[in-house]
Amino acid sequence: MRYLTDRARVEGLGSAKQGTAHFWEQRISAIALLFLVPLFIFPFAYNLGDGYEAVRAAYAHPVNAIIAIAFFITVFLHLFQGLQVVIEDYVHGRAGMVLIIASRLLCTLFALVGVYAIIRISLGA
C-alpha cells in the first residue's frame, strides 16, 4: 500500500499520465460552441433560400467567414472527442483503436471539407 495524500494521487495523473486534459478540452470546445453556433446560424439562416451570389456576399465578409471556419473546426473537434470517449468505453481491443483512428480521420476530413468550402465561397472561386 502506498502512503500518498489525495493530492499526491491526483497529481500522479493516473496510468495514462494525462489527467483530466481530455475532459477539459471537451468542456472548452462545448463552451466555444455555445457562442459559435448562434454566430454561424444567423448568417446561414438569413441567406437560406437565396441564390449563390447572396450567400457568397454574406461569407465574403471576413467576420462571417472566420466564424464559419472556427465553427467547422470546433464542431468536428468536439465530435471526435465525444466519439473517442464512447468508443473507449464500449469497444475494446484492436477494434476500438481502429474505430478511434477512423473517427479521427473522418472528423478531420469533414472539418477540412467545411473549411475548404467556406474559403471557396468567400473568395468567390
Automatic annotation (TrEMBL):
Keywords: Electron transport, Heme, Iron, Membrane, Metal-binding, Transmembrane, Transmembrane helix, Transport, Tricarboxylic acid cycle
GO biological process: tricarboxylic acid cycle
Membrane topology note: Multi-pass membrane protein
Predominant location category: membrane
Metal-binding recorded as keyword: yes
Sequence intervals crossing the membrane: 28-46, 66-86, 98-119
Pathway field: Carbohydrate metabolism; tricarboxylic acid cycle
Range of residues in the leader sequence: none
Locations listed in the record: Membrane
GO (cellular component) term, any one: membrane
Domain of life: Bacteria
Alphabetized GO MF terms: heme binding; metal ion binding
Cofactor: heme
Subunit structure and binding partners: Part of an enzyme complex containing four subunits: a flavoprotein, an iron-sulfur protein, plus two membrane-anchoring proteins, SdhC and SdhD.
Function statement: Membrane-anchoring subunit of succinate dehydrogenase (SDH).
Protein name per the record: Succinate dehydrogenase hydrophobic membrane anchor subunit
UniProt organism field: Maritimibacter harenae
Primary gene name: sdhD
